[in-house]
Amino acid sequence: MKLNERGLLIVISGPSGVGKGTVRRALFEMTGHDLVYSVSMTTRAPRPGEIDGVDYYFVSKETFLERIKNNQFLEWAEFVGNYYGTPLDKVEEQLDQGKEVVLEIEVEGALQVRRQMKDAVFIFIVPPGKKALYERLRERGTDTPEMIEKRMRKAESEFLLAHKYDYIVVNDEVHNAADRIMAIIRAEHAKTERTIHNYIKMLGE
Amino acid sequence: MKLNERGLLIVISGPSGVGKGTVRRALFEMTGHDLVYSVSMTTRAPRPGEIDGVDYYFVSKETFLERIKNNQFLEWAEFVGNYYGTPLDKVEEQLDQGKEVVLEIEVEGALQVRRQMKDAVFIFIVPPGKKALYERLRERGTDTPEMIEKRMRKAESEFLLAHKYDYIVVNDEVHNAADRIMAIIRAEHAKTERTIHNYIKMLGE
Asked: Cα distance from B192 to chain A (closest Cα, Å)?
């Protein structure tokens, strides 16, 4: 029996290189949940095979700018001439349907979301140490030593933003981290501030 | 990897007849946890076979009253001439050892604990409806119709104290309820306010 029927907006973020994407994928591979991705909106042209509403919502630049003006994004950014954003109305629709909407985004975007969605759940994924992060970046083998240095410096400044999040989850092992996030989702649904309204309604019946 | 090494004080409470004891037992039957009961202190004489420090801490009335004066109980009550209480120092010792200390107590006692332990986790167990509670009390077969009526009236007034708790857990099915409590314990350990101190320490290493 669910006292809170509305879905949760789960924001998964953390320093670059920490393995956010891997943790998110492990989370979605778990069973018995109602997790969905949030589909981004973009002004970039669809690539062959991309489906509107599945891969992205494809819109014109005019529409996008109009939406920015009307505060219709949870967060947005410009990247090499194209706009990308998380459409607020689409997220709200899914939350109303009882789905848990998962946003895996960079620290900067997460802080934008924080300002608009007070009742979202903010999870900061961290490595089990600075050395572990360095090793991970090195083992990935995609970056030059200079790029790794640059990423480490960026991570150093992002590390300090942990206090802006509700939870800190160590990515020591990806399934452990996913398990912890699942526990957080279950616990958040039981929180008094989310359940008391329906609880009182239930007593009246 | 545990960022919060200290145990949690978990207070399980709720209206009488809701099945707190059953839920607690189901919780302790689960594996992979570090849950312990809190042992009460009492002035009543030990019964044959009862072991000091296991069943109760047996103390004199003088000791007990002295401890009340010194604020050394999380909660206490007098019952037919004997005193019963939860000793604060013993609980703190177990928390320091990383154990999760579970207190299953009546609503009144829980509110006493709230005043002293700001960082304890307060869980309110509720029935899936008033009717369900009535049926449960009736099926138990231990109470007369008048006692059931009295219990229902007491429950009615206790129902309204839900907002003083951190979480509301519906006891629709005992294993569901225990699962939810376990998720709450895991999530609470990941809360930023409990983890940030060790997280910062870890970064410095």
From this structure: 5
